[in-house]
Amino acid sequence: APQTPLVSCVTGELLDADAATSPAYWGRQVHDTVRFATGIGTMIREGCRLLLEVGPGHYLTSMASQQTAKAGNVVCQPSIRPASGSPSPHLGLMRSLARLWTLGVEVDWRAFYATRAT
Fold it and tell me: 70: Cβ–Cβ under 8 A, 6 or more apart, which residues?
């Protein structure tokens, strides 16, 4: 069962322990209609104020921003948005990480730099 609350894309509501461990639920996840707007509403209702898109691009961030505009006080942030014209493929990730840090997200800098040569 989930230890961290998850919102189901199938129902748009919080995922309960029974569904989280049900093969039938995960089968529905593959073919049922995604309830994105309902899910965003659930996250806001549950007090979520930072929505982080994990993956390349920013398509879902744009859609979530439209959904959260009325709620105010909600930040929608892409994680790996490519930096236009940048020579570094990592610049988008670094910018997102910097923004999260300035918003008060605790960053494990030791882990982030762990693979960096000294």
Answer: none
- The identity of residue 93, as a single letter, is L
Please give the model's pTM, rounded to 2 decimal places. Answer: 0.80
Residues 55, 32, single domain; the answer is no
Tokens 């209609």 locate to 33
* Cα 55 to Cα 64: distance, rounded to the nearest angstrom: 15
Q: Are 7 and 13 in contact (CB under 8 A)?
A: yes
Is residue 77 domain-shared with residue 43, that is, in the same domain? no
Residue-wise pLDDT tens digits, 77-106: 988 876 666 667 688 888 889 999 999 999
Q: Is residue 114 domain-shared with residue 63, that is, in the same domain?
A: yes
Show the domain range for 94. Answer: 49-118
